[in-house]
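User: Please work through this fold.
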Amino acid sequence: MGFLLESCTLKPYNQEVIDGCEPFDCDHPDLNDFFRNDVENYSAELLGKTYCFTLDEDPSIIVCAFTISNDSIKTTHLPNSRKKKVIREIPREKHMRSYPAVLIGRLGVHKDYRNVEGEEDNTGKQLMDFIKSWFIDGANKTGCRFIVVDSYNEPRALRYYAKNGFESLFSTEEQEREFTGLPDEVKLSTRLLFFDLIVLAKE
């Protein structure tokens, strides 16, 4: 099962957790600020739900945290080649203009708990495997074909999602910049990535 499910407990990340735990530090200023200061407002505005795993032997330590919300992939907004990539595993008679997805809005792992079981099965991978399993579980009350994420356009973040099977929704930054309407000289701060859950559902 791994460290995360054997040695940690899943909890809603709320004010009670924030008040009772040490400050969560995933070594990223923007993420740290969100998890310390914005979680409650984000939830109150119905923009997303945040969860965390705390350490069983010391529940004041938040090992990792993530925020999820509803989303979709609208293929009508994609270049034809990228549309084909998204729907390649979907039977032709099931083709739609929009496909249900869950958005990972924020995700972080405490800097001291990243590699408790080595590089290949580290905490970040276990966390992503857990999130994926939520949405292919038979008890899930809604359809969800994809996981999407607006990843920081930074080598470490992009490498993490690539290792976990995510692909770029757009083939190049130029293509994504055109889609988002940004000027050519503006560097993308994030990249849109997706994971097709049917890969796991068919296993």
Remarks:
- The mean pLDDT is 92.
